[in-house]
Structures are given as C-alpha cells and as structure tokens.
C-alpha cells in the first residue's frame, strides 16, 4: 500500500464535519434533559470502546457527537411543565382539528427531543409557532390549512 493512500485515508477520518448547533435558545423539557444526559452517557461508553479498539473512524464520529451533545447539555434551559393549561405554552400537549376532519395531537418540546412520528414537535416548528399563545377555540394556520385548538393539557 502506498503511503499517499494511507495519508489520504487519515485525512478523511480527521475531516469529519461538525453537527450544526441551532441558533435558537435550547429550551428542553425535564424529559428532554434526561434524554441528553442518557445520550452523553451512551456516547462516553462508545468512545471508550472505540479507543480500546483503536477505531479511528468511530472515534472521529463519536467525538464529534460528544462535542455536539456536550454543547447542547451546557446550553440547555429546562422549562418546567406549565401549571395551567389555559394557553398553549412550551411543554403543553395540544389537540387540533384540521379542516379536512383530521384530529392531531402534539406536545411542544425542544428541538433535540422533537419527533413528529411520536407526537412531539419542536417549539420552533411552524405549527408550534402558530399554536403558542393560543386558547381553546382559536383557529390557526397549520401547514396549508386552518386548524382549531380543541384541547390544551
């Protein structure tokens, strides 16, 4: 194997791109903070295993992820669950009825904990931004159609 090939491979491993950090405040629910901390613990274990195996590519990837999650943990602002659900706020679960008859329920959470397939959306998403501050009966633009706020909890 030529030395030029080895050097090129080493540079590729070291040039692993950073994960972008959102410019928005890092609001998290208490559950979101627990998820960040669990991810950090898992990555620290993976890092130790990759070091033991001398797996440079895994070390580069895991180190990048550790930097991201360490920064997210440092900037996390835990928002306590709302005490009163008269108005849609961060951490609330909101049920809406769309014009086409569909009923959807979302919990508004931090960016890193959002998973629309599980019913959680980021507070900076267009739907969440439209819902924040609304009351039961209010109509909002949600995507390409209007939706009525049915329930807030």
Describe the structure in your own words.
The protein is an alpha/beta fold. The chain has four helices and seven strands; from the N terminus they run αβααββββαββ. Strands 5-4-3-7-6 form a five-stranded mixed β-sheet. Helix 2 runs antiparallel to helix 3. It starts with a helix and ends with a strand.
Q: Give the uncertain stretches in residue-range form.
A: 6-11
- Give the helix proportion (percent range): 40-55%
- Number of H/I helices: 4
* Number of self-contained structural domains: 2
Approximately how much beta-strand content do the residues carry? 15-25%
Notable traits:
153 residues, alpha/beta, Chitinase A, domain 3, 7 strands, two-stranded parallel sheet, 5-stranded mixed sheet, 4 helices, 2 domains, single chain, elongated
In short:
By secondary structure, this protein is α/β, with parallel strands linked by helices. The chain has two domains: 3-78; 93-152, Transcription elongation factor, GreA/GreB, C-terminal domain (Chitinase A, domain 3), CATH 3.10.50. The protein is built from four helices and seven strands, in the order H-E-H-H-E-E-E-E-H-E-E.
Summarize the helices and strands and which ones pair or pack.
Layout: H1 3-14, E1 27-28, H2 30-53, H3 56-75, E2 77-78, E3 93-98, E4 103-109, E5 120-122, H4 126-131, E6 139-142, E7 145-152
Parallel strand pairs: 1-2, 4-5
Antiparallel strand pairs: 3-4, 3-7, 6-7
Helix pairs in contact: 2-3
């Amino acid at each position: 194997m030529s030395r030029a090939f080895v050097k090129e491979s080493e540079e590729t491993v070291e040039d692993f791109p950073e994960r972008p950090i959102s410019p928005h405040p890092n609001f998290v629910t208490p559950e979101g903070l627990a998820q960040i901390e669990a991810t950090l613990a898992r990555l620290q274990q993976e890092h130790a295993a990759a070091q033991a195996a001398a797996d440079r590519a895994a070390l580069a990837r895991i180190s990048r992820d550790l930097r991201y999650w360490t920064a997210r943990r440092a900037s996390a602002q835990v928002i306590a669950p709302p005490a009163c659900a008269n108005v849609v706020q961060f951490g609330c679960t909101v049920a809406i009825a769309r014009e086409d008859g569909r009923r959807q329920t979302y919990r508004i959470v931090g960016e890193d904990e959002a998973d629309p397939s599980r019913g959680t959306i980021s507070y900076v998403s267009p739907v969440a931004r439209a819902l924040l501050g609304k009351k039961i009966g209010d109509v909002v633009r949600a995507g390409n159609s209007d939706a009525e706020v049915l329930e807030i909890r």
